[in-house]
Amino acid sequence: MAVRTPIYLDNHATTPLDPRVLEAMTPFLTEHCGNPSSKTHIFGWRAEEAVNLAREKVASLIHADAKDIVWTSGTTESINLALIGAARANRARGKHIVSCVTEHRAAIDTLVYLEREGFPITWLPVDDEGCVDPADVEKAIGDETFLISFMAANNEIGVIHPVPEIGKIAKEKGVLFHVDAAQACGKIPVDVEGMGIDLLSMSAHKVYGPKGVGALYIRSRNPHVRLEPILHGGGQEKGLRPGTLAVPNIVGMGRAFEIARLEITAEAARLQALRERLKEGLLNRVPTAVLNGHPVRRLPGNLNLSFPGLRSDALIPRIRDVAVSSGSACASSETAEPSYVIRSLGGGSDRALSSIRFGIGRFNTEEEIDFVIERVAAAVVGAR
Ligand SMILES: *Cc1c(COP(=O)(O)O)cnc(C)c1O
After folding, report:
1. Where in the chain are the domains?
2. Does ligand 1 have an atom closer than 6 angstroms to the CB of 76?
């Protein structure tokens, strides 16, 4: 059977909506029109009930208490609220923050903003496979440190960071721990209790939910984490994130996280098999290709390869019917800047300029992977 093109293989940038999610959302886009803040009629009550059910579904995936979930517009906003909110609310405890050079722009730019506001940041390096050493985290913590911020899994090279080890260090030192889990939720286990996480940022659209909705987990016990809001208004979400709730999107996020929780084990195994098939196929055909990131400690659907001597901005136009990316979509600039994540692995700018990220998702098939192997290998060999 011929595969349908173009093939979507950029599931780290965003994922298509699961039809089951759309089905859950549709009534809330039409007949169930209420505002959950309306307390005087059935429309408001029904909306509030749906929002609370979604809150429980999101909390369940990360082993949290539903009352510790605050709705936002996505991970970028969650990170801003977590980091800026914690910095402003915890000034008395200290001002120093520990983070990492391979964080997503959403975290880096928020931290750079805080740095200008007088909060010193320690930017920890990674090894040549993209991993951070928990011993470096421990060493970086001083008397002034109040916060550690790390991503659970990297959006470019898929590397899974030692979150439980870092969480343990944070607890021992009495430092708050924020985790950017945009790529991890629904792909690998996330457990805010077992992993010592105090703040956790999430998006729906990386997990087959709608774009423009996310959540922040804020621990309320052991310890009670205090944040200063960055938005001001109608008092929704305990005043931490005011504004009318995006009910259809929230319902969609709840359903997306519920599906992810129920299917995570089987889906991870299937994605990993597809990823290994793609990796073996491409390395067989193009033996000079180099793997970026850790061979096994990575997201099941992530493959990132560099094709030495062939710039990705020359390769990508030759594989028009396969949607992949060089570096990250999230930098969203037209400039051909080499990826700072690949550069941080060492190996010079050639490796960064020639890297391709393959993001395999729920709706990709084995036939599509075989097509991609042929297409990419032919383009690489043909370009030489
Ligand atoms: C996508 C992503 C973000 C930003 O999420 P938005 O939904 O665009 O706000 C942050 N961190 C990581 C690791 C991501 O993959």
Report:
1. 7-16+264-383, 19-259
2. yes
